[in-house]
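Hi everyone, sorry if this is the wrong subforum. Our group has a chain we'd like a structural model of before ordering constructs, and none of us has done structure prediction before. Sequence below.
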Amino acid sequence: MALRLWWALYSNSMPFSDFKRYFDIASEFAATGNLSCQGHPFVFQSPAYPLFLGALFWMFSPVVLVGKLANAVLAILVLAIFWKVIQRQEFSPWARLLALAVVAFFPPMLSFVSVLGQEMLALFFVVVILWLVKRGGFLLGLCCGLLALTRPQFILLPFCLAGLGWLWKWYSKQACALLLAGFALALSPWVVRNWRVFHAFIPTTGHSGYVLLVNNNPANRAGVWMPLSKIALTKEQRDVFRAMKAEFLLEEGDEDWKGVVWTPALDKAVFRMAADNIKKDPLRFIEMGFRRIWNTYFTGGTCALYWAFNGDNQAVPTLNNLTDWFAIVVFFLSVAGIVVVARQRDPVLIGAALLFLISLLAVFVFEGQGRYVLPAMPASAILIGAVADRICRRQNKTEES
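Answer:
Right subforum, don't worry. Here is the predicted structure as tokens:
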């Protein structure tokens, strides 16, 4: 906890790229009360974090330190709530300690305290969900909705929990209905706003087509993000941009600005383009999916630190190497944890497995970056704790025999 507060106070991280956009939107929200960027209604990314940051800027002032301190508070709460979650599990003391150490000392979990992005807020909602998952009900659904408004891939989570909760009799029918009602209520103000502004049904974010096309076009060979000006399009696909008066987005220029002026109508058309690319060459899509997993879990540690050190990959090479190895070990132990908990019916263990698998699926289909590991890190830690507990129990049985 002390390390997190120290890093918030004394790190020199400054917002850039996506995080500069969050800062600008939050500042505009504090000044005008509108979720917009330079007057353009914003829908490109999820709304929860810029609204959260904007509310803080309205109460205090639009300075980076306010966001860093808010992240430090969230990070400290994440540790405290996660410790309570694993205390309630029937793990051995060593397994609990290992699970806590994963969340406490994975380097980007510390360094992202200074990054004004969604990660710390998403982590907070994840640990609250793990705390509430045994009881189910309205509050759990509300938190699932807020998590989906922070990281859109987790929109799948409440439906999985409600389905398994009813099938395995964790929850009554009423509790399942309340869970889904809470989820719908959390999303409803954003859905209504988007319908009024864009005349489109947008439950979480309006950039899924953009991400899918950028990462699934013939010019993408590395499985990482690339600018719109570099993507490969057929003549028919370019004609769609031209017909929608959006061909300027394919020219070289400020990629962050393109996100500001991106529209839901264009995103829908672009999603169809990406789906067509996948249908034409499904084997390449699978290959790129594995590349995205590789970029996220096997070489993604350096990427995650990149944002906290102002875009300098060489700032701390030893820490980069340590983080990459840490992420690789976490990935394999998480997969082992899936195997360990597969036949169990404990809501916390299954909830952790769902969070990890949904995160993995989103990386495989859409995009991979090291920072995308962070929201599911508490889930991975619980899965690792389950593996450690299984090993401890077997060792104890061996010693007793």
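For your construct planning: Strands lie at 36-37, 40-41. The chain has 19 helices and two strands.
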